[in-house]
Amino acid sequence: MEKERQAIRILIAPNVANPYDQRMVSELAAGFNGIGHYAAPLAAPASPLELRQLCESFSIDVVLQINRTRDPELPLPPDIRHIAWYQDVFPETLHGFAEGFKSSDILYVLGDAQVLGLNEDLPCLVGSLFTGVDPTTLAFKSVGHPARLDFSLCGGLPHPAGGAGLLADTLWHLDQLIRRKPLLGKSQTVRLLRKLLFGSLLPVDFVPYSTLLAMRDIVRSFYRPLRGELDIHLIAMALRQLVEREGEMFEDIPSTSSPEQSNWLATLMKSQTGRYRGKSHLAARLVRFLAGESAFFQPSLKEAITGAIGYFAQSYPRILDREALVKLASAVSPSLAIYGPGMNLHDFAAPYFKGVIDTQRELLDVYSRSRINLSNNTHGLGLHSRTLECMATGNFLFMHESPHDNKPGGMLTSFEPEVHFGSYTPESFAEKSARWLRDEKERMQVGIRAQTIIRERHCWHHRAQQIIDDLKR
Questions:
Q1: What is the pTM of this model?
Q2: What are the E-state strand segments in 129-233?
Q3: How far apart are CA 265 and CA 262, in angstroms?
Q4: Which of these, 317, 23, 18, 322, lies nearest to 155 by C-alpha position?
Q5: How far is CA 424 from CA 106, 420, 433, in A?
Q6: What pLDDT, on the 0 to 100 scale, is given for residue 418?
Q7: Terminal CA-to-CA distance of the chain, rounded, Å?
Q8: 3-class secondary-structure state, position 319
Q9: Across 67-177, where does the E strand assignment appear?
Q10: Closest to 33 in 3D by CA, of 470, 467, 471, 461
């Protein structure tokens, strides 16, 4: 029998060991198994060495990893094909990105690659792959008659933007003042002592609060909430220009001495008694620092700035979306429930926060008892798990319009507004949501029609068959 007609053996690894990722890989594996192939999901990410050993032990043909590319340092066996499925894209994702692909590989993204910001030329097939729906979700029936909600909003949020505090800011500015003094600033001894002292007192992710505020204001000026038009590279470029204008304030400070000094001091450190091994002892810190053991100390400010740019370009717009959505919904009705990790950390969401949903059944139950299930997406790519699972239960989804609605991952590629879901803009939200709340009969019909589309096109076995077809191309 020819290779393409044989059952393909696939190993699927999550990005992180959390319930969401574990459920995604398990259900995709079930989709493969349901169409006659063999797929094994891992409960946690695997190291390159572990992946190689598993492939050899179980005669694996394809490795599929979420948010991971091949490891160039420890390659898979030469006959193994690799699939990278990217569901989150940050500005720093593209650093050396193209190096992790072979011509036989496949890169999937959760929507349109250009819209999500993956604009690198790659030597392999690049496509869109969405999450799917399992049979139990399609068959879900809410038990009992719980109290109904007008609005619900499910999903997590990153932590709020904020500085490390007044003390950290004061210390940092004092350090900068010393650095700018003509004699002190050029002294190598003073530079080392500054790194030793301030590096141990400042948080590892420290960025001056004034810089964070400036970054926040740039995002607020560039990004319009609930329009689905986020361009992470445009915002990241503006944030980098801000840092460049700050100039020498972000100059990197050397963190190690010469190799000769490092070797001598490393020998010295190993020969000392316990008093030099205590991490809190100043002498031990100095010896370890000069010996090149810089794990105690804050990474370069450049690294912290890179993290801040990623946060404000990709994560902070999600907060702005949710803040705008909560304000719009609460102005229409106080019957609003918010669920998800991190939601309670934000002042706009805390009054409506009802907890973190732990099980899939609890999530589906919230969908079922909500007259309107609110949805948003910074890139406008609506075909993600919450959207599809809500529609699979036959319930009403309310999603904003986006200029990307007709691109892969956009709502209009599978669904028709006002027929399969409710569509809104920030300006029309109040009028349209009030109308849908009043029209119970039509709202239920919209949910039923959407469920039919899900059953026909958006189950996990549909995703598995798409991957098999792409592997044969």
A1: 0.81
A2: 149-154
A3: 5
A4: 322
A5: 35, 13, 8
A6: 97
A7: 18
A8: helix
A9: 81-86, 106-109, 125-128, 149-154
A10: 461
In this structure, what DSSP letter does residue 421 have?
B
- Give the span between the Cα atoms of 77 and 59, in whole angstroms: 10
Measured distance CA(426)–CA(435) in Å, rounded:
15
Provide the angle, in degrees to the nearest 10, between the axes of the packed helices 209-222 and 232-246.
140
Could you report the per-residue pLDDT of 359-388, keeping only the tens digit for each? Answer: 999 999 999 999 999 999 999 999 999 999
- Please report, for residues 134, 259, 267, the alpha-carbon distance to residue 196 in angstroms, rounded to integers and kept in the order given: 55, 19, 20
Q: What DSSP line would sit under 133-156, residue for residue?
A: B-HHHHT----S-PPPEEEEEE--
CA dist 243 and 378 (Å) reads 24
Is 325 strand, coil or helix?
Answer: helix
Cβ-based burial of 254 (10 A; exposed 0-12, middle 13-18, buried ≥19): exposed
Q: Which residue, chain included where needed, has tokens 């190096």? A: 99
- Residue length of the chain: 473
Residue, of 362 and 250, whose pLDDT is higher = 362
Which is nearest to 352 in space by CA: 337, 371, 333, 370?
A: 337
Q: Is the per-residue pLDDT at 277 higher than 50?
A: no
